[in-house]
């Protein structure tokens, strides 16, 4: 009887030891996963003096890098942004910061870098009229989008398009564009895109984390998840 009791005690000790070991392993795995998610996946952006859609104090920040020659950017703006805007931006749940990543004209080795011209144009509008002017000209340029393989966003064409933005001083806008006054702002955006390891456009980040797709449903889920954290 005494030996049998001793065996039961040994078994009890073994079971308890096994449970403790399993618990420690589980905690270690949880810690590793948590640290890996925090350290490598979140990017910090400098968002000072950037155009914003939505309320500045919204709890979730969506950053979108775009190239005006990018067909998928046009699709994002026309097919998905309206839903994101109505559900999240207009309701104060999130704000959207637009940034430039003009690379397509250079990649296509076009004779003129009209990706950058278009980016400089919206920045010139922003200098004069803030986020509203930026957004208005951005939508106009996307509606006028031509082929990726052709130069269509020439400075003269961009000046014509800017004529449709109410309140812009067209002479001032023309000088800004002709003299590349906003080139540094565009280059700063591009540098941030490359630091964030954006590999294309549109590149959408929610609270600094790259979203796997730019469609409204995926971006919405990312905003909801960020809101619950």
TrEMBL record:
It comes from the Bacteria. Gene3D superfamilies: Glutaredoxin. SUPFAM superfamilies: Thioredoxin-like. The keyword Signal applies. The chain crosses the membrane at residues 12-32. Residues 18-228 form the Thioredoxin domain. Keywords: Disulfide bond, Membrane, Oxidoreductase, Redox-active center, Signal, Transmembrane, Transmembrane helix. InterPro entries: Thioredoxin-like_fold (IPR012336), Thioredoxin-like_sf (IPR036249), Thioredoxin_domain (IPR013766). Belongs to the thioredoxin family. DsbA subfamily. This is DsbA family protein. It comes from Deinococcus rhizophilus.
């Amino acid at each position: 009887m005494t030996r049998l009791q001793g065996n039961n005690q040994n078994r009890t000790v073994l079971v308890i030891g096994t449970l403790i070991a399993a618990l420690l392993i589980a905690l270690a795995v949880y810690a590793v996963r948590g640290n890996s998610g925090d350290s490598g996946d979140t990017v910090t952006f400098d968002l000072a003096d950037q155009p914003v859609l939505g309320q500045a104090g919204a709890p979730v920040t969506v950053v979108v890098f775009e190239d005006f020659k990018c067909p998928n950017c046009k699709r994002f703006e026309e097919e998905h942004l309206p839903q994101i805007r109505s559900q999240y931006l207009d309701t104060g749940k999130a704000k959207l910061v637009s940034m430039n990543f003009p690379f397509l004209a250079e990649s296509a080795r076009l004779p003129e870098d009209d990706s950058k011209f278009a980016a400089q144009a919206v920045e010139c509008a922003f200098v004069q009229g803030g986020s509203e002017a930026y957004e208005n000209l951005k939508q106009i340029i996307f509606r006028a989008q031509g082929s990726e393989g052709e130069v269509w966003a020439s400075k003269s064409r961009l000046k014509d398009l800017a004529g449709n933005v109410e309140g812009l001083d067209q002479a001032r806008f023309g000088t800004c564009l002709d003299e590349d006054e906003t080139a540094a702002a565009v280059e700063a955006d591009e540098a941030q895109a490359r630091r964030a390891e954006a590999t294309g456009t549109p590149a959408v980040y929610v609270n600094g984390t790259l979203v796997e797709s730019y469609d409204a449903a995926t971006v919405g889920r990312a905003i909801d998840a960020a809101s619950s954290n």
